[in-house]
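testing teh design pipeline on a random one, pls ignore if ur not involved
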C-alpha cells in the first residue's frame, strides 16, 4: 500500500532567501502544474518570507508553504521564537521539526521535537519530523538503532497519516553531495515503515516517509523509485525552481 502513497516533494530553504527570491518562487508556481500530477509540492522558506510566499501561492494552490521550526507553546515570553499558530496565521500548512541542524545547533532533544510536533497539530499543521544518523553512528552500524529511538522519542502518540510525515535524512549526506545507496535507502525506509505501522497500525502504513540529504535532479529518479520512499526533503536543490521541479518530475 505504501508504494501507492502520493509523493511529497518538500523544499527546505534553511537560512536562505530574501525578498528578491520571490522571482524564483514565482517560477516554481509557474512550473507546478506540470508536475502536480505526480507529487504534492511544499516550500519551506525562512520565516520572513512565509506570508509573502503564501499570499503568492494562494491563487494557484499548487504549492503549499511550510515553516522550518516552531516553539511548543502557542504564545508567550520566548524571544525570537515562532509558534505553530503564527506559522498557520502566516499561511503555512506544515512545519519541519527536529531537523538535524536544529538538533545539533540548538541542542533539541527528541522530547522537545515531540512537543513541537504536538504544537504543529494543535495549530492544524502537518508535522514533518526529521530523523537520521551521524557518520560516526553509521560507521558503528547504529543507523537502525538511532532511527528507532528517534522515532520512539520524537513522534507523539496519536500520529495519523494526514498529520505526520517522517523525513529520513542521514546527517552525513546533508549538503555533502553524498547519498546512501538505493539498497541502503530501501532497507532503512522499510525499517521506518515497519516501526510506524507497528506503533500506529493503518495510520503508520499510510504515512509518507521522505528521503533527504543531497537529493538533486541527477539522483532523484533512482531514490524516488525505491520502495517506501514517498517523496523527498530537499535543501540546496530546492533553491532553484528548475532543479526543484525536475526532482518532482522524477517521481514515479
Ligand atoms: P541538502 O539537500 O542540501 O543536502 O539538504 C538536505 C536537508 O537538510 C533538507 O532538510
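output:
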Amino acid at each position: 500500500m505504501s508504494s501507492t502513497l502520493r509523493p511529497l516533494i518538500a523544499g527546505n530553504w534553511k537560512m536562505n532567501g530574501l525578498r528578491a527570491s520571490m522571482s524564483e518562487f514565482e517560477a516554481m508556481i509557474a512550473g507546478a502544474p506540470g508536475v502536480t500530477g505526480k507529487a504534492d509540492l511544499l516550500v519551506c522558506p525562512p520565516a520572513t518570507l512565509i506570508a509573502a510566499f503564501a499570499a503568492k501561492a494562494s491563487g494557484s494552490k499548487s504549492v503549499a508553504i511550510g515553516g522550518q521550526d516552531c516553539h511548543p507553546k502557542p504564545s508567550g515570553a520566548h524571544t525570537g521564537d515562532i509558534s505553530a499558530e503564527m506559522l498557520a496565521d502566516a499561511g503555512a500548512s506544515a512545519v519541519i521539526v527536529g531537523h538535524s541542524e536544529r538538533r545539533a545547533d540548538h541542542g533539541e532533544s527528541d522530547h522537545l521535537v515531540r512537543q513541537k510536533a504536538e504544537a504543529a497539530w494543535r495549530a492544524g499543521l502537518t508535522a514533518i519530523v526529521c530523523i537520521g544518523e551521524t557518520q560516526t553512528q553509521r560507521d558503528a552500524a547504529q543507523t537502525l538503532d538511532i532511527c528507532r529511538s528517534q522515532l520512539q522519542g520524537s513522534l507523539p502518540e496519536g500520529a495519523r497519516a494526514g498529520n505526520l510525515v517522517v523525513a529520513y535524512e542521514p546527517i552525513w549526506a546533508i549538503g555533502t553531495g553524498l547519498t546512501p545507496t538505493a539498497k541502503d535507502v530501501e532497507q532503512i525506509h522499510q525499517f521506518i515503515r515497519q516501526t510506524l505501522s507497528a506503533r500506529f497500525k493503518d495510520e503508520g502504513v499510510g504515512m509518507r516517509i521522505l528521503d533527504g540529504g543531497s537529493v538533486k535532479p541527477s539522483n532523484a529518479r533512482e531514490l524516488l523509485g525505491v520502495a517506501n520512499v514517498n517523496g523527498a526533503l530537499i535543501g540546496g536543490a530546492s533553491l532553484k525552481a528548475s532543479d526543484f521541479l525536475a526532482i518532482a518530475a522524477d517521481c514515479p
